[in-house]
From TrEMBL, chain A:
Protein name per the record: ABC transporter ATP-binding protein
A molecular-function term among this protein's GO annotations: ATP hydrolysis activity
Lineage of producing organism: Bacteria, Pseudomonadati, Pseudomonadota, Alphaproteobacteria, Rhodobacterales
Keyword Transport attached: yes
Keywords, alphabetical: ATP-binding, Nucleotide-binding, Transport
UniProt keyword annotation of Chaperone present: no
Gene Ontology cellular component list: ATP-binding cassette (ABC) transporter complex, substrate-binding subunit-containing; maltose transport complex
Pfam families for the chain: ABC_tran, TOBE_2
UniProt similarity note: Belongs to the ABC transporter superfamily.
TrEMBL record, chain B:
Signal peptide, first to last residue: none
Record's bilayer topology term: Multi-pass membrane protein
UniProt entry keywords in alphabetical sequence: Cell membrane, Membrane, Transmembrane, Transmembrane helix, Transport
Major localization listed first in the record, in broad terms: membrane
Lineage: Bacteria, Pseudomonadati, Pseudomonadota, Alphaproteobacteria, Rhodobacterales
Protein name stated in the entry: Sugar ABC transporter permease
């Protein structure tokens, strides 16, 4: 079981309030991702849940029990750190067994659980090596192994993939998702990468300056961002946000349209513009089009390979059903 | 071609330094070796100009056969071992203490280093006259305050006293090296251990101490090299009596007090051998520790 409830949790360092009172419920077995730009308080929030930082106010409940003042070791949570935080002078086996040893389990039981974890994580061949002799991905797996042997109520991940190269990151992303499907344990995952959030989460919590901007499933956030910040943060490439006269036509202060919801035509359409830089990815092509009456270049995403030359005049037509409207406070107009 | 030229040029340019260092080391070493095989008593009129009488291993046999040889080796090892134990244990504890964020950290750190800058002779004099003196010393006041009889430290507890003085001098060195080592410990490791259920002492034993292993071996190695040759502290305080005559001090007495340069030189060669045995032993431990 791992249902975590935050009730008006507040954190201040001296006079600086990093996290204003905040409410959040994480259901048992959920994969929750905290996402936001750097300095938004997402790591601090995770450390509050872990117990590595003391809350300045409010209450943290784990499975209904008040855990606000419970020391980290007694909360039944396991954490995977950004730097992996492996113990460099211990072999992989000893690293993974460390929490079991601290819990006073007998040697046979320790060995059994380490074996089981190593099997799950493909670490069996590396058990006698030291962390220094492993690659980044393997170290990451050892860190996860050290977390899973404890059979915790919930896993906490603090930007675990940010030290890996791009190819490994995609692989580890899948492995962590896979692990979650298999263990069905609550996982809280902190990242600044919205792609990780979109691909892994059951529920995304978008944070900015300690505030929760929106909570929802990845597709809810994609389809109906509650405000301009979420609209700009979720989705890649970013949503085009257009103000001025064009927004007025739609009775809004700002309108948003995702690059994939704009069609391009060389002959006719709503907005006339000139093609700037184009990025060819093979599966998709991104065009940056400078349109009349729109300040910033509009990003357009077209499936497959489309050839439009630099400086060519094109016409863009946004899909009216996929248009997001925001009022002058940046909030979504339903 | 170019590399060969620059290599020989480099050798040429390094030569003065190398020759100077070699001479600095080799001349005294050779002279000590030579004297140790001769009868050299300046008071009896022996001198290098008139030629020294070659006596083979006689000096070596006499030095080791003397009743003060083994006690002096014992005293040396006791003092070195005692100082190492105190400085390493207290050094680790002080380093942990100084690593904690506190008010006035910078000043406290400088104060901790201060004893290292005091000359050995001066610090020994200060300890002898201001702290350990049985009549006017600080300790005697404290003892009397509690109604106890003052201890005459340097005669009744001479070896522990010397160990105390030398430890006081070397503690800053150990603390400083261990402090820098402790500062390089990744705080996430400690947090991970905390999450893993390790209480404070377990975190110290399983995380901090292994992390300090390398620094501790370096402290032991460097201190041993210097501690084997401590002299001023003994000369100023006990003058080698009350069981504080170390090997270094014995050699000094043979050469200066007894004016027997041949015998003293043989003792010096023994000291070189002893230092090398310790050094090889230590290098192996350090090498093992540094490999990781």
């Amino acid at each position: 079981m791992g249902r975590i409830t935050l009730d008006k949790v507040r954190k201040a360092f001296g006079d600086v309030e990093v996290i204003p009172p905040l409410d959040l419920t994480i259901e048992d077995g959920e994969f929750v991702v905290f996402v936001g730009p750097s300095g938004c308080g997402k790591s601090t929030l995770l450390r509050l849940i872990a117990g590595l930082e003391d809350v300045s106010g409010g209450e943290i409940r784990i499975d209904g029990q008040d855990a606000t003042m419970v020391p980290p070791a007694k909360r039944g949570l396991a954490m995977v750190f950004q730097s992996y935080a492996l113990y460099p002078h211990m072999s992989v086996r000893k690293n993974i067994a460390f929490p079991l040893r601290m819990a006073g389990l007998d040697a046979a039981e320790q060995e059994r659980r380490v074996k089981a974890a190593a099997d799950v994580l493909n670490l069996t061949d590396y058990l006698d090596r030291r962390p220094g002799q492993l690659s980044g991905g393997q170290r990451q797996r050892v860190a996860i192994g050290r977390a899973i042997v404890r059979e915790p109520a919930a896993f906490l991940f603090d930007e675990p993939l940010s030290n890996l190269d791009a190819a490994l990151r995609v692989g580890m992303r899948l492995e962590i998702s896979e692990l979650h499907k298999r263990l069905k344990t609550t996982m809280i995952y902190v990242t600044h990468d919205q792609v990780e959030a979109m691909t892994m989460a059951d529920k995304i919590v978008v944070l900015r300056a300690g505030h929760i901007e929106q909570v929802g499933s990845p597709l809810e956030l994609y389809r109906a961002p509650r405000n301009l910040f979420v609209a700009g943060f979720i989705g890649s490439p970013k949503m085009n946000l257009i103000g001025g006269a064009i927004a007025k036509q739609h009775d809004a202060a700002t309108i948003g349209i995702r690059p994939e919801h704009i069609s391009v035509s060389p002959e006719a359409g709503d907005w006339k513009g000139r093609v700037g830089v184009s990025e060819h990815l093979g599966s998709d092509t991104f065009f940056h089009v400078t349109c009349e009456g729109i300040g910033e270049p509009v990003t357009v995403r077209v499936g497959g390979e489309v050839d439009l030359s630099y400086g060519q005049t094109v016409w863009l037509t946004p899909d009216a059903n996929q248009l997001h409207r925001f009022d002058d406070k940046g909030l979504r107009i339903a | 071609m170019a590399t060969q030229h620059s290599r020989s040029a480099a050798r040429l340019m390094m030569a003065p330094a190398v020759i100077l260092l070699l001479g600095w080391m080799l001349v005294p070493l050779t002279m000590t070796l030579w004297f140790s095989f001769t009868r050299y008593l300046p008071m009896r009129g022996d001198s290098i100009e008139r030629g020294l009488e070659w006596v083979g291993f006689e000096n070596y046999v006499r030095f080791i056969g003397s009743s003060s040889f083994w006690p002096s080796v014992q005293a040396t090892l006791m003092i070195v071992g005692g100082v190492l134990l105190i400085t390493v244990v207290l050094g680790v504890l002080l380093a942990i203490l100084l690593d904690q964020p506190m008010w006035g950290q910078g000043i406290v750190r400088i104060l901790v280093i201060a004893p290292f800058f005091v000359m050995p002779t001066v610090s020994a004099l200060v300890w002898k006259n201001m702290m350990m003196d049985p009549v006017n010393g600080m300790f005697s006041y404290i003892w009397r305050f509690f109604g106890a009889d003052p201890v005459s430290w340097l005669s009744d507890a001479s070896v522990p006293s010397i160990i105390l003085i030398v430890s006081w001098q070397w503690l800053p060195f150990a603390t400083l090296i261990l402090l820098t080592a402790i500062q390089s410990l990744d705080s996430e490791q400690l947090e991970a251990a905390e999450m893993d259920g390790a209480p404070v002492l377990a975190r110290f034993w399983f995380i901090v101490l292994p992390h300090l292993g390398r620094a501790i071996t370096i402290v032991i190695l460097i201190q041993t090299i210097f501690l084997l040759s401590i002299f001023a502290e003994i000369f100023v305080t006990t003058g080698g009596s009350f069981g504080t005559r170390t090997l270094t001090y014995l050699i000094f007495q043979r050469v200066v007090d007894s004016q027997n340069i041949g015998l003293g030189s043989a003792g010096g060669v023994y000291a070189i051998i002893l230092a090398n045995i310790v050094a090889i032993f230590l290098m192996r431990i350090v090498g093992k520790n540094l490999d990781r």
